[in-house]
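Lab notebook, page 48
Experiment: co-folding of the full assembly
Goal: obtain a model of how the components sit together before planning crosslinking
Operator: M.T.
Materials (sequences as entered):
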Amino acid sequence: MGILVGQILNSREESLISMPAILILIPSLIKIGGDTGSMLGARLSSAFHMGLGDNLRSNPVVHNSVIAASIVGFVSSISVSILVFLASSFLGFGMPFFTLLEISLIAVVIELSVVYSATVAIAFASHRFGIDPDDTVIPFIASLGDLVGVTGILIALHLLNIL
Amino acid sequence: MPSESHRDEDLFESQYIDKYLSEYASVSSIVREALPFELLATVGGVVAGIIFSGMTAELEMIPGLLVIYPGVLGLRGNISSTLGSRLGSAIHLGLITDLDRHNPELMNNISGSLILSVIVAIILGFLGHFVTLALGFESAGAFTLILICVISAFTSGVILSFVAALLAIGMFRFGFDPDNVVTPSIATLGDIVSMLMLFFSAKMVVMF
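Observation: model returned without errors.
Model output:
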């Protein structure tokens, strides 16, 4: 999966190298989805192990964990764009702050919605089929976070007509 | 009466679950515990990104470097976090008390994680080269990519294993649970160190 992420980046190599600020943004932004998704996955599987995972819709653990993970994800993405703005203007290739904020927010919305749906789906499915969710969710979600993160950033760049 | 005691048990259990859910699964408690670590991790990510943006010359000179970079970072993070977690368990069991070169538990864990990183790095460089070629892009050659992967994975592995062992033993001495401290800090530090080592090994390969 890492190679796949690399190939997506490689196909846009020229334009990425011309925008160092985006290069700073990539490693931290793609980590947010994997990190918060892994946290969500670990919480869901602990809840299943304790017998709290009976139905999907009215389950407070699922509900609250998804809300909390999204809050953490959004706050981190805002802090990433502030840090990247400071770092890039300090290094002399500044980008407008609102462009960076827009890129991070669009990318994070795409990333979090895909990663969290996948996390909940995999956790429930592996629980249903009797496979320990602890073993299945985290390794998969960490790589999926990278993949969707990079795709999200490229989609955001396209939407804002930067690429 | 057996049925009554059963009902008591049920009552106790449902009270326990309610209490548990209000403490464990409330949105504010999750955010309070997770947000500081995530913010710290983003700082590490930005530092790694700054190093990455300084690599533009190497990225242009070595086609394929951009392909292996997410893999090298992921490999390092996964293997080092596992090492940190294993060291934490060994310290809790009393198998490791000191940073001692003759302690088989400590040295086996570290050498095992180093061997694993070298093997995965070779596979990564190999895959990186052939997948890039298969998709019709230019690649710097399998040997160059494998060399970069192996050098950066091995050197960052040595540094991070040392830091993980030091941190785990030190934190335990000061009364912290190494499991809570080592894995998040190694994950954050891992990105920075492996990015730096990727940068150096790319520079070395360009020079020769």
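Interpretation: Residues 60-91 of chain A form the longest helix (32 residues).
Next step: discuss with group before ordering constructs.
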